[in-house]
Specification:
Blueprint lengths: L13 E4 L6 H19 L3 E6 L5 H13 L4 E7 L2 H11 L3 E4 L8 E8 L3 E2 L2 H16 L13 E3 L3 H9 L10 E6 L5 H8 L11 E6 L21 H9 L4 E5 L6 E4 L5 E2 L1 H18 L5 E5 L5 H8 L3 E5 L3 H10 L4 E3 L5 E3 L5 E2 L1 H13 L5 H7 L4 E2 L3 E4 L3 H15 L4 E3 L4 E5 L7 E7 L5 E8 L2 H15 L6
Pfam families: PGM_PMM_I, PGM_PMM_II, PGM_PMM_III, PGM_PMM_IV
Cofactor: Mg(2+)
Family: Belongs to the phosphohexose mutase family.
Length: 477
């Protein structure tokens, strides 16, 4: 029975169980469709294909590659890489790309992240719906026209080029010596960190003492899930930072496109603080070059992000959550940098794409060019108190959000309400007490996601508990 591709091809990428949902047959059809919808209309003579360490990756990547080649398009197979390694290949080769990864999902899953030449995103509104539709037709028996010649497949290891490219963007050679614990979670950070921060790719050594955790590539994730967004998955890193008296810790997710930071005490640093820290570094470079910098941030990053960036002379642009939206805003605004609460960081110098490794290098540079510890740096960029993302299972997300909206409209008529992405209620500018919250529905589950921030802890706790009470059936105090 043919799989319904609507189950596995969503707004941003392909993600499914192997082989029940994502099989070599499906990968082959998606490869054909990608060639027809993206590569051939762009006049792209080749497609770059990479994969992470999952056991199903080689077979699925081969099937996709065969599908692309069957439509007369060449393929550059770059083998094992991080997702940002694939974006680098797409950028420097000026070729559409496909990355086989399920990011932080469990071992039974795999997926495909697709991009156009120059690492430009392919999402629901930028080609993915058309890829899904054509691939479904192929799986249902439709035949495509014959091609004159099958595309050629060549292999190219681009890890060294990727490492050298990043080294050219952030110079770490002159920083003070730092000890850094890195938790790769048995994911692709174990492949890229030794090349970028070490000497595995033949680059010069840096003043870094890297303590590795779980660098062995293993798509079964034997130690913990490669999802640092979950606090339980940071525990080993936090303990190791304290044990080794390290200056900081870094945690990468499975495909190493996200990076989380832990300070010298083992405390997690908010991705909003990292967005502000890295954003200010990039803003400084733009101002020195005589340009007015634009920085993108999603609507649930801390208020400190736009406040600090604007004070430094930048133009902050607020956008909805999701990498396809951030990337589109990055390109349309020629933004120098963008950051999300989920620890995705985007750089104009990196094809407007996200790269956890480059963000980590900026953090190392910021820490290593001044004498203060990581905790002091983080505190500078974390003036407010946040709840973190809290999920509630609901029967009717729209009706629940409407109930929250009605209650807060009555209780706080001076609050600002907007619907850019879910429901945002802000009681901040020229208001006291200062707080805001965002309530968004999940795209894939019957969940409402709540984020709250306030000027102090007591206010945050009250707003958090009041909104959760409404969401879960109660009433505000």
């Amino acid at each position: 029975m043919t799989i319904d591709l609507a189950r596995i091809i969503k707004a941003y990428d392909v993600r499914g169980l192997v082989p029940e949902e994502l099989s070599p047959e499906v990968a082959h059809a998606v490869g054909q469709a990608f060639a027809e919808v993206v590569a051939l209309p762009e006049g792209a003579p080749r497609v770059a294909v990479g994969r992470d360490m999952r056991d199903s990756g080689p077979e699925l990547a081969r099937a996709f590659t065969a599908g692309v080649a069957s439509r007369g398009v060449d393929v550059v197979a770059i083998g094992l890489c991080s997702t940002d390694g694939l974006y680098h290949a797409s950028g420097v080769l000026d070729a559409p790309g496909a990355m086989f990864t399920a990011s932080h999902n469990p071992a039974a899953y795999n997926g495909i992240k697709l991009c156009r030449a120059g690492a430009r995103p392919v999402g629901q509104e930028t080609g993915l719906a058309e890829v899904r539709s054509l691939a479904q037709e192929i799986l249902d028996g439709a035949e495509l026209g014959a091609v004159d010649i099958t595309g050629a497949v060549t292999e190219q290891d681009m890890l060294g080029d990727y490492a050298a490219f990043l080294r050219g963007l952030v110079d770490l050679s002159g920083i003070r010596p730092l000890k850094v614990v890195v938790d790769a979670g048995n994911g692709m950070g174990g492949h890229t960190v030794p090349a970028v921060l070490g000497t595995a790719a033949g680059l010069a050594g840096l003043p870094l003492d890297v303590v590795p955790l779980y660098f062995e590539l293993d798509g079964t994730f034997p130690n913990h899930e490669a999802n640092p967004l979950e606090p339980a998955n940071l525990l080993d890193l936090q303990a190791a930072v304290v044990e080794h008296d390290a200056d900081l810790g870094l945690a990468f997710d499975g495909d190493a496109d996200r990076c989380f930071v832990v300070d010298e005490h083992g405390d997690a640093v908010s991705p909003s603080a990292i967005t502000a820290l890295v954003g200010l570094r990039e803003v400084g470079k733009e101002l020195e070059a005589g340009r007015t910098p634009t920085v993108i941030h999603n609507l649930i990053t801390s208020r400190a992000v736009p406040d600090l960036l604007a004070a430094a002379g930048a133009r902050p642009v607020r956008t909805r959550v999701g990498h396809s939206y951030i990337k589109a805003q990055m390109a349309s605004n020629d933004a120098v940098f963008g950051g999300e609460h989920s620890a995705h960081y985007y750089f104009r110098d990196f094809f407007f794409a996200d790269t956890g490794m480059l963000a980590a290098m900026h953090v190392l540079a910021a820490l290593g060019t001044q004498p203060h510890p990581m905790s002091a740096l983080a505190e500078m960029y974390s003036p407010y108190v946040a709840s973190g993302e809290l999920n509630s299972t609901v029967d009717d997300a729209a009706a629940t959000a409407a109930r929250v909206r009605e209650a807060y409209a009555a209780a706080y008529p001076d609050a600002v309400v907007d619907d850019m992405d879910g429901l945002t209620v802000s009681h901040w500018d020229d208001a006291h007490p200062q707080w805001w919250f965002n309530l968004r529905a999940s795209n894939t589950e019957p969940l409402l996601r709540l984020n709250v921030e306030a000027a102090d802890a007591d206010i945050m706790v009250k707003v958090r508990d009041d909104v959760l009470g409404l969401v879960r059936g109660g009433a505000p105090e």
